[in-house]
Amino acid sequence: MKVSQVQENEYASFYNTYILQVSDEYSLLEELEIAVHRFRNFVQNIPLDKYDYQYAEGKWTIKDIMQHLIDCERIFAYRALRFARKDATSLPGFDEDEFAANAGGSKRNVRDLLTELAVLRESNLCLFRTFSESDLLQKGVASGAEMSVRALGFVIIGHQNHHQRIFEERYL
To answer: Which of 79, 80, 43, 83 has its CA nearest to residue 63?
Structure first.
């Protein structure tokens, strides 16, 4: 299943930015695996003095963004699990700024952040491998918008790609 198969009615329009960041070259499972390795290699080549850099007052550091990616991936995967299991409960949104303010990402070691991201992605790969074609098409409501399981998988990838691009454009 590739990102081009995801229909616009499977996610809220504010996720379009992330969906458009995913290449159609690979399947969802392939891209989940490839993207984390690509990101890890990219981050490992960032100069050490840039990990705590803020390009403007009040902006997150690279380490804060890495923690943000970890937190968001956990939330998106949880939503995917709930929707795949046909849980009809509407799930609340979350305040990413509040999460970042309380996560302590900038105090963490980059190696530990990369390890946590890799372990989390491996766990989510295991989860997404359990989903059947019909599971991937299941929808639920989160943050007041309907979303499919497969769209959530592609949002995980696209969100990571989006922030990598921001690193390249504003931090390096």
So the answer is: 43
Side chain identity, residue 29: L
Q: Write out the H or E segment, with its range, that includes residue 108.
A: none
Q: Domain residues for 87?
A: 3-171
pLDDT score at 99: 97
Q: How far is residue 167's CA from residue 172's CA, in Å, rounded to a whole number? A: 6
The DSSP annotation for 28-51 comes to HHHHHHHHHHHHHHHHHTS-GGGT
At a CB cut-off of 8 Å and minimum separation 6, what does 126 contact?
none
Whole-angstrom distance, CA of residue 157 vs CA of residue 21: 8
Q: How many CB atoms lie within 10 A of CB 167?
A: 18
Residues (pLDDT < 50) of the chain are: none
When divided into structural domains, the chain yields a total of: 1
How far is the C-alpha of 39 from the C-alpha of 160, rounded, in Å? 8
- The number of residues in the chain equals 172
* Residues 74, 153: Cα–Cα separation, whole Å: 11
Host H or E run for residue 140: strand 139-142
User: What is the distance, to the nearest Å, from the Cα of residue 19 to the centroid of all Cα atoms in its chain?
Assistant: 11
Tokens of 83: 């929707």
Phi, psi of 88 (to 5 degrees): -85, 5
CATH number of the domain enclosing 148: 1.20.120.450
